[in-house]
Amino acid sequence: MTPQVEQDQYGGAYMNQGMYGEPYAEQAGHSSSDGAFESPPTPGTRRVTRSKARGATNPPPPVITPSYSPTSTGNTGRGRGRGRPPGRKNNIGEVIHSHDDETSLYHIIKNSKVSLTNIVDDWIESYKINREAALISLMQFFINAAGCKGRITQQMQATMEHAAIIRKMTEEFDEESGEYPLIMAGQTWKKFRQNFCDFVQTLVKQCQYTIIYDQFLMDNVISLLTGLSDSQVRAFRHTATLGAMKLMTALVDVALTVSVNLDNTQRQYEAERQKTREKRASDRLEALLGKRQELEENMDEIKNMLTYMFKSVFVHRYRDTLPEIRAIAMTEIGVWMHKFHANFLDDSYLKYIGWTLHDKVGEVRLRCLQALQPLYASEELKGKLELFTNKFKDRIVAMTLDKEYDVAVQAVRLVISILKHHHEILTDKDCEHVYELVYSSHRAVAQAAGEFLNERLFQPGDMDAGKTKRGKRRLPNTPFIRDLVQFFIESELHEHAAYLVDSLIESNTMMKDWECMTDLLLEEPGPHEEPLDNRQETSLIEIMVCCVKQAATGEAPVGRGPTRKVSSLREMKQAGEDKQKLTEHFIVTLPPLLDKYSADPEKLANLLSIPQHFDLDLYTSGRQEGCLQALLVKLKYIVQVHHEPEVLETLAKTLEILCTEGHSIYTRCDVARSTIVDMIVASYKEAIDDWRNLLLGEETPNADEIFNWNLWDTLFQDFRDIESGLPPEALKYCLSSCYYYLLWGLRDLEVAAETGGLTHSNFREVRDKLDDFIEASQILIRSSPHIVIKEEAYVGLCDLLIVFSEQLQNHTAIGELVCRPDRNLQILLNEFVQTYVFVPEQDAEHDEHRIEELHKRRNFLAAYCKLIVYNIMPTKAAADVFKHYVKYYNEYGDIIKATLSKAREINKVNCALTMCLSLNMMFNEVQRLSGGRNARQHEEFFALKELAKRFALSFGLDAVKNREAITALHRAGILFAVTGAENNSDDPTGPPPNLPFLEILTEFTNKLLKQDKRYFTGMPSSRGEDWQPLLLYRNSLLHGETDQLPTTSKRAYGRKRHKDPDSDHDQNDDLSDQEFPGNLYG
């Protein structure tokens, strides 16, 4: 098939049907069934250049009939050739087409020591002298750029068709490496890719006035690139497609230039023609007419070239199997449509982008959207996109949820452009799809959705913002903030104000309009205004506080943005300015806000966090000491009347920030803090005295929730007494207060040790209190009737064991405070984990409650595992945890996996033995459940094998590194399997009761080295059904047959063992695992 016939086939298939009528059966990435790569075969036996298609020979005659399109007829050429006649071969032509590394076009462009313009100019000069030689050098460049070392000779060019030349190059192509310049890594190749594209475009630009119309250069280049782009060789196809697409882009630029010149000539001709006969210059009219005719012929010529290349290359390559080629096609068609929209911005071309929006590769989908973006951004082109938008709007909206975030971002931006120019096409449902993305975890997607929200909901208009009750005019952003609050409330699935704020704060100034927000909260509504209800006020305060935090810190909320972001100087400067502005505003308005909402804990907890983001020096530099005093008075009042943990914790944090040393307000704030603490202590003493007096009078007091400070004796007295009359919540606070007392006591000792003021009495006091707390906590865990007290005691105990661990040995003076858990304490903590962590999932009525309970249990497990990870308890203490790895994988798999990894880092052998111990425990449980009979058929036995498989996978692939650990595990497993044989009184010669454990051990045999397998095969060979686990284990050592159980008959049989003559006898490893007990606490 020749290219001419090929166009008949493809032109008809694509152009004669309905514009979008055919289904998307030719999605990119799916080859046609006609060939391995694509439908059209390699161009046929005969090179069809443009001149030959017209019936011309080479060199071309002066009169030709140009025709690129198979459907075009009657096109007449200009009556003269524009190229220079073929000259004699000269040295310049010979040098450029030579394939010598130093002088070939490929080498020169790759090294780019000379500007591309100069390279092209030199090539043009050689072309004018000897165009055959210059053409060969250009063809050689495209061949070399594909990574082929084959050489095109003058004889080949003179006697062979392009298809034959391509076949010859294919035979000489070295495809073993699979790499070629366009895909190779490194700065050199990256630069070459750019130079390759620039060279093609510069060549056309420099030849645009004469040479490209000579019916020799473009004929041959287009024919070569068309043939190469249809090659089965990926490198040829990729390189030629890029070259052809860039060639088309360059021709589009030429067409634009010709179009401008044609318009200018036409205007000049019309102006001259409209002159009176006396003033009209007939020779000038003839010249302008001749120039116009020539430009029209040039435009026709270029359009024919573009049409031919589009049908010959693009139509096949836009659905190539290689995504890089499909991406090139989509990128360039977008350029053509934007630049030469008169010719390309048509539904017959747009449909290719629409179909490729469904491509399975994200990069190709991205290029489609990027191609459409400038088209939709242009007001003048909107009319030509209407049919396309109606057809593919749903797909573009769906792509806002694309799994590739870059694609999703571009899709949202495209929807914004559609909203601007085709807003009537988008439905409310389409918009809601994009609205929800402001809560996306990916920041770029969320911010793009925020821009859509701005365009859709927050566009300024002529709306009157209204006035407050006292006549103050509302700020322009007031209706937008009301809409934002309502939008936040209606987003029922998302209650993350910080995410919403982050989506909008960089694109909408209302997010930093502090006065507008506080006026809505403090000012009474005007006569025609609707007041904010309680939910709206709560939402506005939450949004406002998130805005304050992000404006002051410049940091995205947790879960968005990089974990380690280094702010630029510009961002730091912006954050500093925002911090100053918000501080100046809220210094004055925060006390009234606290006063108005002092009875609402939820609003208070948010408002109290605002001073944490102040520039504290502005209190004095701005002469706002009165506002500071008002704030401190409000804080004291809140402590007196509120007992909610969230409110008090936020207030304590704010006080800590206000009392930062080095600020001018430190003294005043420190005095206020001391006053508040004294008030709390006095309140506590008064309340606890009243409580105890009531108990002494044998009265029944009401439950009293209290907040405690560091009053050790009375607090410890209350929580140590299990039968204390205090409510469980009060006891919990007593317990946590004593815990924090010990932490502060340790800090005071560390400070005293550094300053030299440490005394033995201080040290002894903390040590005694620590011992008392640990002892009392153990009693509570064992005997407290309240689960909340058990949990608090357990968490406090685990945390204190970490704080008072071996790390204190670094401080010689306080090294004796190190607390090491004894065996009884280890047992107690393990029992707590087994009882309260590894429990069946309860069918909770509310998912929220179920999630909270799971989170709490995960914290319990993490507290225990940290004791293993930090080597505070021995690795074997984790055996009871490891055995639940598979059963509770969904709930705690990540925690147990991390503990396994850290335990291996501490000691590989002990970790392996702990795994074996876990398997032993599980095996004993299986034996108990099965009654000692047919344990291998029990359901739990298969679960045990799965656990062993997971353990085996955790060792990785490095058998040498894990050799000692694996051999230790096998030895321990074998010892466990043969234990109990001496107690088998029924049949002294029968198998040991634990022998089935060897089947579990087979999961680890593939981790043994070859010589170690030989060591373990030296076991006695026995026969019979009951000994099958031993036979299975031996076979797995010899042959690796661990997946299928061999079927055996009742009669005993033996198998000859094959001896490997190449295996070496391994010396016995002297592993020091005798100290590792056979069970955990026995």
TrEMBL record:
Biological source species: Rhamnusium bicolor
GO biological process: sister chromatid cohesion
InterPro entries reported in the protein's UniProt record: ARM-type_fold, Cohesin_Scc3/SA, HEAT_SCC3-SA, SCD, STAG
Coiled coil: 278-305
Family: Belongs to the SCC3 family.
SUPFAM superfamilies: ARM repeat (SSF48371)
Region (Disordered): 1-95, 1043-1082
Keywords: Coiled coil
Gene Ontology cellular-component annotations: chromatin; cohesin complex; nucleus
Comp. bias regions, Basic and acidic residues: 1059-1068
Pfam families, per database record: HEAT_SCC3-SA (PF24571), SCD (PF21581), STAG (PF08514)
Domain (SCD) ranges: 314-399
Name this protein carries in UniProt: SCD domain-containing protein
Molecular function (Gene Ontology), one example: chromatin binding
